[in-house]
Amino acid sequence: MDLLFFFLLVRSLFLATPLVCTAEGNTHYYEFVLEESNFTRLCSTKSMVTVNNSFPGPVIRVQKGDAVYVNVYNLGSYGVTIHWHGVKQPRNPWFDGPEYVTQCPIQPGANFTYEILFSSEEGTLWWHAHSDWSRSSIHGAIVILPAEGSTYPFLKPDEEDVIVFASWYKEDVMTLMEEALSSGGLATLSDAYTINGQPGDFYECSKNTTYCLVVDYGKTYLLRLVNAVMNTDMFFAIAGHNLTVVAWDAAYLKPFNTSWVLVSPGQTMDILFTANQPLGEYYMIGSPYFDGQADDFDQTITSALLKYSGNYTNPSSAPVYPSLVPAFEDVHSANAFINRVRSLATPKHPIDVPLNVTTRMYIALSMNLLPCPNSSCSGPEGDRLAAAMNNMTFVNPSMDILQAYYRNINGFYQTNFPDWPLIFYNFTSDSLEDDNVTLSTIGTRVKVLNYNESVEVVFQSTNVLNSGEHHPMHLHGVRFYVVGRGVGNFNNVTDPLTYNLYDPPEANTGAVPKDGWMAIRFYANNPGVWFMHCHFDRHMTWGMDGVFIVKDGGTSETSMRPPPAHMPPCDVQSVIGSKQYSDEETKAINSG
Prior knowledge:
This protein is mostly beta strands. It is built from seven helices and 33 strands. Strands 11-10-13-18-15-16 form a six-stranded mixed β-sheet, with no helix packed on it. The C terminus is likely disordered.
């Protein structure tokens, strides 16, 4: 009871202050209070867990190279972890956040302080819950300004704003997740998308709360886009206004102009626009992009308003709507946009692409099935839907992998994650329904890398179960370079000849094209345990995940930092773990 009183006292102090952030040099402090709050959207009210009663949550603002301490108090009803998406966290995996990988959840009534160490990142990133599906309501932006004495590599904008895309579910998301895992079938679709927490004009009971950005004619604005949507990429456009893309995933790009952009779940993007149109109101829209076959998606559009300041008569009865946004399933436009992205690659913003690769991996990404006793699940043929990398469906252990690795505790993971698919086949064929490729194996397998290895990973999208679609792959603890993308099956002789090793984009999340491949390179120079997964939450939940363990180097400066004095205990087993399978299912999976 005393702890609860203390939490409530902290919350009241936070709410009484517009911005709870004290800075001592380059160190900042934040308080995050997780608790249930009521929110009304789409004509109904529901309770959900948020940070500081805010959806989206508070923006963390730092400068390049700063450190942040975030004390998280959990007043909610279930365990939660927080991940600082895209922050490399040099030698500091203890505070990276994915549940049962680097820590166990912060249980209700407990607290945990995260240490976030910024290094080379500059631009926009974000934070979000990394436990179950709780990130749907627990997320917010991170703004990383240039270091003292430096500035943007483009003309400084007059003003800036953060735009966060998210999913809205009328029902409780945790209940929906548990139902999907229990049945083994498809996940329930969202009911709406939101911009800065509001669905916008095209949804019922939403027009009066649409987010509005007021601009002054002639000014240039920097928009920091964050895609926190659970399972869908988003096209974004502003009616009548040209956009200039200048950064993504907190790395600067060669600027290019466009009338719309595409942002995958997990990705961030910085864009400029100038308010140079006739005074009036213009729609900013978030429209879904989906190229799947076996699944469905929320086919609605979220909107916000861009409104010019001043006294004028609006020239039209309704805001101007964008005219050039691609259709929901426009694969060609999506790939063409991604292929335009190039690193800035200047002396002030250099890149360091590995040229001599020492470790190569070829990872097939697939939708799969796990057998259910008596065909009792809701997936195809009565089986359970799963997802896999090289036919390995990842499950959370009962102790986090980092703790088991650091303390040399056996039995919680295996070091035999395959570097290659177990079976080679035509990955993009339209007839992939044989048990040899559809059935996967469950387990907790990791890939161990020596310190400072130069790594190339080729992700191969597959059409197993006729379920081909693109996958936004996210790596923790590294910032990789996307050196190549293509359609069809990867050819290890001819496709590397097409690699861009001059100015490939640096990223933390990259989109593997449908029925195609993506090649990335990075140096394994960040010792620790680091998660790798698809950022479609339904795929991550179904097991399209893996883990890298990067060994320590030979010095203290190339070794993991010691753990904090207190880590959340592993008292509660993961829902996304072996306990989601009955004993009969486990026997059927292992025998199948």
